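Protocol step 4 of 6: structure prediction from sequence.
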Amino acid sequence: MKVGFVGAGKMGLPIAWNIARSMGSPILVCDPRPAALPPEAQADAALLSFVPQLEGLQECAVVVLCLPDSKVVSAVVEGQDGRPGLLDILGPDSVILDCSSSIPAETQRLAAKLAERRIGFHDAPVSGGLARAWKGELTVMAGGIADGSALLPLIASFTSKIVQLDKVGDGHVMKAANNYLLAANIISFTEALRFARAAGISFDKFGEVVNSSSGASYVSANKLETVRRDDDSVSFTSALIAKDVRNFIESYQREGLEMPLVPKVLEVWEEAIEKIGGDVDSMKIFRTVGGQGR
């Protein structure tokens, strides 16, 4: 099975690398500005064969996308500015697997359009962060992928958990919901931590209490040390968090829903980005809550 990959950025590159390592043969990668392989992955660099244009993926049976948002996914699938998209490049019975953070309704629209050409389209967004991406330990939310699908072994190459959801678009529904929860939880966590620190509670005692109590969360369990360390390492940028909240807003508005807290969460992230920038780690929001005292 010939596999192609579009979007070898910070998250896409380790996904592509793990797919190629699992297959034991090169995959075709299309990205005008791919991320750099870390030194420990250089030995397998030949497994990624870069092509300059989407047309280089013409013979692929499966093409995996890992792109910034639905607008970019739509441009890659449908074409843009006179350039053909995968809709016109891939042959019948091929499949596109979208690991991007996309709008569910747009995913369903593309799936219906591709189905007219006998091209499959499934959403398979990921969660877990960069370190787990390189280890092949992501969680994947797979939309409409049935047991026995040939896509499952491919997905298993970069994940430690696959949650199979009922229909196309459901993966992106859960990705939007999960990442909004993360965005809101980071704010509440950093506010609580700021209060505790101002009152003289140590990082260790804060973590000991919260992580054995009802306020425990993924953020409290995994990000307390990141806040204490306060260095320049980046796992998930503040700009990406804000983008995910915007995705959530657009997604629930298309369902005719109103959510009173979500706009405030986005406002807090946008204000934080004005102060600390969008390219820093999202936990740097701690610097912006409750003043500067520690």
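Step 5 (inspection) to follow. Residues 170-198 form the longest helix (29 residues).
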